[in-house]
């Protein structure tokens, strides 16, 4: 992709899943990367994998909770110290907190602070350091949960909806040199998903995913990473204030899914019939 090689990026929440896959993709294209993680042991293991796979492109890690404002400030300062400037920002670190009736005020504050508020703080810090005559790009990781109502998910869906609006508002204020977009993945099969459903096997979880995605499977982290890197690249130079769903049709069929076996490929025989 155009405009990636030789640039630098910060990816929050980059030790696994979408963030790690995005780091891999950027490094493979010659972009220097700093990832973040809350747990030192896990973070250092992720960094070691990146450095082993891409030894010719600089990578590093910041250990800290991105829900803490000072960590956002220190992270951007680290990026400036290492790279001189930060060209790309990927806001990915997010509290996967899904509560409804039992949600406490702390639950609400936690998901907002570790979600849209930390995204906004990182964007502020990025803008303050960014040379005003240089182009840049930001991608916020949102979710189909910003678009589709889901049961027992008041906190998470509200926070992801805030990311959707934050993306549009910041795109207006940071134009014309800095583009801001978001991606909205559907269900990505990660360790976090399996942790939230300890009573179900992987086979059971995958079977549930089949009816919610038109491809009959959950989304892969590398598929999300490809969309993110595209939006960062010069190939997306005319795209800003936009959300790109990476959802295998999830937002078309909704949270209830796609249960009718008579729909789908078998329907094509009826198209154009009298």
Terminal Cα span: 46 Å
Q: Please tally the β strands and state the result.
A: 7
Task: Output the strand order for the largest sheet.
Answer: 3-2-1-4-5-6-7
Q: State the CATH superfamily name.
A: NAD(P)-binding Rossmann-like Domain
Which overall shape is indicated by the principal axes computed on the Cα atoms?
A: globular
Radius of gyration: 19 Å
What is the CATH topology classification name?
Rossmann fold
Describe the largest sheet. 7 strands, parallel
Indicate the low-confidence ranges by residue numbers. 262-274
State the domain count.
1
Average of the residue pLDDT scores: 89
Q: Class by helix and strand content?
A: alpha/beta
Helix-residue proportion: 40-55%
Strand content: 5-15%
In the CATH hierarchy, what is the class?
Alpha Beta
- Strand-and-helix sequence, N→C? EHEHEHEHEHEHHHEH
CATH architecture call: 3-Layer(aba) Sandwich
Number of helices: 9
Overview of this protein structure:
- This protein has one domain (8-191, 220-257): NAD(P)-binding Rossmann-like Domain (Rossmann fold, 3-Layer(aba) Sandwich).
- The protein is built from nine helices and seven strands, in the order E-H-E-H-E-H-E-H-E-H-E-H-H-H-E-H.
- The protein has helices at 17-28, 40-53, 69-83, 105-129, 154-174, 191-196, 202-210, 221-232, 250-253, and strands at 8-11, 32-37, 59-63, 88-91, 136-141, 178-185, 243-246.
- The chain has a seven-stranded parallel beta sheet, with helices on both faces.
- Helix 2 (40-53) links the parallel strand 2 (32-37) and strand 3.
- Mean pLDDT is 89; it is low at 262-274.
């Amino acid at each position: 992709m155009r405009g990636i090689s030789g640039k630098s990026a910060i990816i929050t929440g980059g030790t696994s899943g979408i963030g790690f896959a995005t780091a891999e993709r950027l490094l493979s294209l010659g972009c220097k990367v700093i990832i973040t993680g809350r747990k030192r042991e896990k973070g250092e293991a992720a960094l070691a994998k990146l450095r082993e796979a891409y030894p010719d492109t600089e990578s590093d890690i910041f250990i800290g909770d991105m829900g803490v404002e000072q960590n956002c400030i220190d992270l951007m300062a680290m990026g400036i110290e290492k790279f001189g400037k930060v060209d790309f920002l990927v806001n990915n670190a997010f509290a996967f907190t899904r509560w409804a009736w039992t949600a406490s005020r702390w639950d609400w504050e936690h998901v907002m602070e570790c979600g849209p508020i930390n995204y906004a703080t990182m964007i502020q810090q990025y803008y303050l350091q960014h040379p005003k005559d240089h182009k840049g790009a930001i991608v916020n990781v949102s979710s189909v949960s910003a678009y589709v109502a889901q049961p027992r998910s008041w906190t998470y869906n509200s926070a992801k909806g805030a990311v959707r609006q934050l993306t549009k508002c910041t795109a207006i204020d940071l134009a014309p040199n800095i583009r801001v977009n978001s991606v909205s993945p559907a269900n990505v099969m990660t360790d976090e998903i399996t942790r939230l459903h300890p009573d179900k096997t992987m086979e059971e979880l995958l079977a549930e995913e089949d009816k919610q995605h038109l491809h009959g499977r959950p989304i892969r982290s590398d598929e999300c990473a490809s969309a993110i890197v595209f939006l960062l690249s010069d190939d997306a130079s005319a795209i800003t204030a936009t959300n790109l769903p990476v959802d295998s049709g999830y937002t078309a069929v909704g949270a209830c899914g796609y249960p009718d076996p008579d729909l789908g490929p078998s329907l094509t025989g009826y198209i154009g019939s009298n």
